[in-house]
Amino acid sequence: MTIKHSLDDAVRPALSRATRFRPGRWPGFAAAAWGVLFAVPSFVWASGGTFGVQATVAPSLVELAHDRVTWFLAVLWLTGLLKLFGAAIGIGLTRRRGKWTGRFMVFCGGGAAVLLVWHGCLFVGHGVLVEAGAWDAAPDLVGLTRWYLYLWGPWFIAGGLAFAAAATHYVRRHDDRHEGMLYGSAGALGALLLSLASVVTGIG
Can you state the angle between helices 99-131 and 177-201, rounded to 10 degrees? Predict the structure, then answer.
């Protein structure tokens, strides 16, 4: 009996560590990594760097960054901070949190998933139509369509899928899955309405 208890005491910490980083947590870490990596260009461009900008981004945006237009620089800093906030949400979804904190993170995760996938699909869909000759590229995107089709579009979609998986895994580990699904769905619906509004108004 003593030997058995000793073995249990020795194995329990190792099992605890394995559970803490079980495979189900990887989507949250992937979402966090996505947010951090994507925040770097925003901060670099806001600080005056232009690495990778001219070849992959619309010239009109490059000109705004080059001319150090105040409102555009503010947007770059804000988007960079939002991407870091998304990284924090990704980390938060890797383990169980308090009731209200968990609800908030699932809400944000669902919203981020829809926003990113929507944005990425727009890039990919537009790129496919242009490459197929069914749609004319906007004047400032001539020669850049393939970057949006093969780089930016898939990158946004990958980030959205990571947030969707992270929120889903978090909900599955929650005691009240129905409640978690409601908050995740609310965030996704809000993001969808925001995306539709941006398309209708031409903003974003």
Answer: 40
Domain-wise residue ranges, the chain = 28-201
Amino acid at the residue 169: H
Cα separation, 115 vs 162, in Å, equals: 12
Distance separating alpha carbons of residues 100 and 105, to the nearest angstrom: 9
Banded pLDDT at 196 (limits 50, 70, 90) = confident
Entry pTM: 0.80
Question: Do the Cβ atoms of 78 and 45 come closer than 8 Å?
Answer: no
Which tens digits make up the pLDDT trace of 69-93? Answer: 999 899 999 999 999 999 999 999 9
Query: What is the per-residue burial (b if ≥16 Cβ within 10 Å, else e) of 125-144?
Result: ebbeebeeeeeebeeebeeb
Nearest to 27 by CA among 152, 154, 155, 161: 161
What are the helix and strand counts (H, E) for the chain? 9, 0
